[in-house]
Every structure is written in structure tokens, then in C-alpha cells.
Amino acid sequence: MEQHMRKIMEIQDISKTFFSKKGMFTAIEDVSFDVREGEFLVILGPGRCGKTVLLNMLAGLIDKTTGRVLLDGKEVSGTDSKISMVFQKLALMPFKTVQENVELGLKFSGMPKSKRQEISQHYIDLVGLKGFEKSYPSQLSGGMKQRVGIARAYATKPEILIMDEPFGQLDAQTRYSMQNEILRIWQEEKRTVIFVTNNIEEACYLGDRIILLSECPAKVKKIYEIEIERPRNMISREFLKLRTDISDNTDLAI
Ligand SMILES: Nc1ncnc2c1ncn2[C@@H]1O[C@H](COP(=O)(O)OP(=O)(O)O)[C@@H](O)[C@H]1O
Ligand SMILES: [Mg+2]
């Protein structure tokens, strides 16, 4: 791990308990970890363990029951433009073109049209959608829609990109190619990525580090530093060893 990496985000003892008429339910319990500037950090955990709840707290979109989330030393709030999200089910606007979808966040910030177009074109090119600027989401494949979501998230130039199982609904072949694409984009753009998945192989392929969560309520089980050089070979001995170590430490068959 490079030594100059500073902590960009600090997650300190956060918990989340939901209260309802039926009683209370704890989804996250005393989770702490740091995020290093520029890293590709993977959060890995079983389905329904609390990953989305955790991400929403990191982004300041829901309240924490306990703990603090600091970005550059300051507590995160939901209106923080320094954080941008990519979701599994992309909320693309069906009656807007690729370009209009990518420009959405910029439009909200009141940026003039010519500047918006310049930025959106850069990110459309970056994600490999040149020529599809005027297409509508319904005309795109699943992988291409994810590319739009990624371009839209990068276009606002956030400090941190949070991606919530972005490839969960893609077929296996598209998923592999998008894994390579997201690494290429991350290497070109040099922004911090927090990537959530329930797929061990995907986590081992992508991450500089992996935060392994337990089943619900989610706690940090172990943090893995991954030294395997990229591009990683999924059938190399060191890759399979890491994958097996993590499987052995995992609560459910995920
Ligand atoms: N608003 C809510 N009220 C009550 N329970 C919730 C709420 N949001 C999520 N949960 C529960 O928290 C648990 C974790 O959910 P989630 O974070 O979506 O899991 P995943 O790891 O699959 O992303 C689930 O059992 C879910 O039902
Ligand atoms: Mg989820």
C-alpha cells in the first residue's frame, strides 16, 4: 500500500437500529474503518446483512443510531456533494437521453449548458458510450445503462464514489467486462471508490482492501489488504488462496 495515502473518511463505531411497532431491529452494530484517499475499497457481505443501510449512513442519507462518519475531518451530511452514489437499480430517467441523464446532477448545481456539455461528453467518452449521447435508456443493454450511471456519478466530480452492488443484475459475461471497465475508469480518474458486493470473487478481483462484514447485524469480521498485482488472474494460486480464506471466514453461503 502506498505510504502517502491519507485517511479521507473515518467511520467510527456506527450502529443502526430501526424502531417500529413490531419492535426493534439492529442492522449495523459498532462498525469502524477508515477509507484511504484514492483507494478501491470493497465492502463484502452476505445478502440482507446491512450493506445498503451502511452505505446510506456513509453518505449521510439516513441517521445513525450511534457513531460518526467524518469526511476530511468533518461530519458527513446528506446534502454533501463530495459523495456520489451508483445504485444497482439505476434511477435513469426514461424520457431523457444518455447525455441528459449524465448532466442531471450538474443541472441541479446550476451549471451553464456549454460547460455541462463539455463535462458530460468527457465522462460519456470515458465510460465508452461515445455515439450514444442521444439514445434513451430503453435502447441500451444492462451494461450500457450501468455505464450511464457511472458517468453520471463521476460527472459531479465527487471525492468519493459509493457503488451499491452495481453489477448485481448483469449476466456473468457483462459483469466481468464491467469489472475491468470500472478498474480502468478508477485508474484514469483517481478518485476514491467504495464498492459494495456480495460476490467474493468480484471483491478479490477489484479491491485494494476488503472489509468483510458478518451477517445481520453487520459487524466488521476482518479487513483484508490485497497485494495481488493487477490485472489479477482469477485462477492464479494467490487469487484462489485469498478467495478460499475469505470463503472460510464468511457467515453464509454468499
Ligand atoms: N427502513 C428500514 N426499516 C426497518 N428495517 C430495515 C429498513 N431498511 C433496511 N432494513 C433491514 O435491514 C436489513 C439489512 O438491509 P440492507 O442493508 O438492505 O441489506 P443488504 O446487505 O442486502 O444491502 C434487512 O433485514 C432489512 O429488512
Ligand atoms: Mg443492498
TrEMBL record:
CDD domains: ABC_NrtD_SsuB_transporters
Domain of life: Bacteria
Entries under Pfam families matching the protein: ABC_tran (PF00005)
Residue ranges the record marks as coiled coil: none
Source organism phylogeny: Bacteria, Bacillati, Bacillota, Clostridia, Eubacteriales
Record-given protein name: ABC transporter
Keywords linked to the UniProt accession: ATP-binding, Nucleotide-binding, Transport
GO molecular function: ATP binding; ATP hydrolysis activity
ABC transporter domain boundaries: 9-240
InterPro entries per record: AAA+_ATPase, ABC_transporter-like_ATP-bd, ABC_transporter-like_CS, ABC_transporter_ATP-bind, P-loop_NTPase
